[in-house]
Amino acid sequence: QQQGQQQAAGRGRVLTLAELEAQFAEQQQQQQQQQQQPPPPPQTQAAYSEMVGRADDATVARRRAARLQREAALARYDGMMSRRDKEHIVRIQVSQLLTDDPAADDFYSHMFRLSRGAAPSPQLAETASATLAASMAGRGRSGTQGAQGPQGSQGTQSSMARMQQQVQRIVNEARRRPKLAHVAAEGALGRISVNSARNPKQVIQVQRGGDSASTADARNPAAERRQTLRQIEAVYAAVLRLEQLLREQTRLPAAPEHAAVQQWAAAYAEARERAWAELGAAQPIMAAYPHPLARFLAVAKGKRVVPRLAHHLTADQTLALATTIIANFEALDVCRFGSFSLSAAARQRDETALFLHAVLPPALAFLADAPLQLVNGLLALFMERNNVAWVARTRPAQLFLAVVLRRSAALAPRAFAEEAFQAAELYSHLFGALRGHVASVFAPEPMGAQPGAADDAHAWQFLSALAASASVEQQHVLVAEARAKVLETVQLASRLPPETAAAHTANVNLFLNALGLDASQ
Q1: Which residues, listed in sequence order, are joined to residue 183 by a DSSP beta bridge?
Q2: Are 364 and 403 a contacting pair, CB within 8 Å?
Q3: What is the spatial distance between Cα 375 and Cα 411, in angstroms, rounded to a whole number?
Q4: Best CA proximity match to 302, nearest among 396, 356, 228, 395
Q5: Burial class, 264, CB count within 10 angstroms (exposed 0-12 / middle 13-18 / buried 19+)
Q6: pLDDT tens readout for residues 368-391
Q7: How far apart (Å, rounded) are the C-alpha atoms in residues 227 and 229?
Q8: DSSP 187-226
Q9: Which residues, other chains included, contact 501 with Cβ-Cβ below 8 Å and sequence gap of 6+?
Q10: What are 89-125's pLDDT values in tens digits?
């Protein structure tokens, strides 16, 4: 009560007895609640304090690392600019804010107005002088401040005068120079374009609506195929007409002067010319790529019609057909991808077999009676128009080269000296193109596959014809490059049944017999 009275007296008011009792009861209740609440165990309190301390330390360390990283990124370029450089940049940026006319202190504004024909401004010399003085001061900050003496001041003034003269001379020259879009330099094979802001360089060439010359050269494979199919059908129709006329020939009179005979001959010639025109073999070799004849022979139906048409062609037309095929070996579908492996698609193998049996025999039949000069011309055309090392991997090219080389070897002893020398030179060029690629004439064999004797027959025949005309040195090269294939084939034949082994041995002997050797040796 005395404490309550003292507190009330301190506050300037005396509490009543009821107020003192209520205050005393409230204090006792608070003391009881504090006694009932158990204090936190010392271990828990220590762990909590430690956790809070760790969190604070980790946060401080993370923030410090981030701050150091930012400082390192900002300090990467510290020291690259000196104090004078910084002051110079600031002076340039602030100079336009300290004048009523910002363009008066702008060097590029003066140059722009001078290039447009305006009168030179008196501030131009001052701006140029200030720029030159600042640049010279920046260059002279290393070492001694040599530009501060009397000699340095005179050099600065003379340099500023020279700069002013050069600027004025450049401006006057630009004003006198005519604005041309092209310049014709002496000795140049054309005109030089002058590129500027008003005449920029053309990056994209936009085709005009009336310019159809360039669009005509664009290829359309779908349209080309449709055109090829129409040509094949037209050739078939002409061939059927020719065959019908041949059947009607038996009913004609024997007299050549008879009107019916002459009418028949005219109809036969017309049908033959129509078939020849649709075949496309008469078109120039460089007219298009692939050649129309190559597109014609890319279709199986086009290959099948060739032997039926070849019986009706003249000798000149047959020679033109063979020449066009030889000049476009690379573009043929059976030679475009080189040699195929034994696991090639069945369609590719069928197309190659069809070409070998339907196209090459009637096209090359005239070689049996061809002179050496014509044979040399066909071989020279083949090497000039094709990649010999690549095309020689294909069976059609191997068959053609074997036929040509055997015919050349048979005619060379009885031919004129000039033609024989030309044949020898062509053979040397052919051998040089094949040197280092002899082993690639054999089709690659997949793992676990066993090649048949017929798969490599064309390659062995080609090597046999190549070895028949080779010199002693060239024969050594052939043996060195084909040795691995010879040994492999002989070892394979030793493990096969007698019938199959005999076929493999015969293929190897085609090559070895041309060299004077035998597989049994």
Answers
A1: 192
A2: yes
A3: 9
A4: 228
A5: middle
A6: 899 999 999 999 999 998 889 888
A7: 5
A8: T-SS-EE---SSSPPP-S-PPPTT--TTGGGS--HHHHHH
A9: 493, 494
A10: 877 776 666 556 666 666 777 777 777 766 555 555 5
d(CA 433, CA 422): 17
Under 8 Å between Cβ of 281 and 326: no
The SS3 of residue 183 is strand
Inter-CA distances, 478 with 160, 191, 457, 474, 518, Å: 80, 56, 17, 6, 15
Q: What's the confidence (pLDDT) of residue 193?
A: 57
pLDDT of residue 203: 54
Dihedrals φ, ψ of 46, to 5°? -70, -40
User: Of the ranges 77-91, 113-127, 409-423, which is most confident?
Assistant: 409-423
Q: CA-to-CA distance for 43 and 46, rounded, in angstroms?
A: 5
| Averaged confidence pLDDT in the chain | 77
- 515 and 478 in contact (C-beta within 8 Å)? yes
- β-strand partners of 193: 182
Beta bridge mates, 182: 193
Phi, psi angles (nearest 5°) of residue 386: -135, 155
CB burial of 377-404 (b: ≥16 within 10 Å; e: otherwise) equals bbbeebeebbebbbbbbbbbbbbbbbbb
Q: Which amino acid is at 509?
A: N
Number of H helices, E strands in the chain: 21, 2
pTM above 0.70, yes or no: no
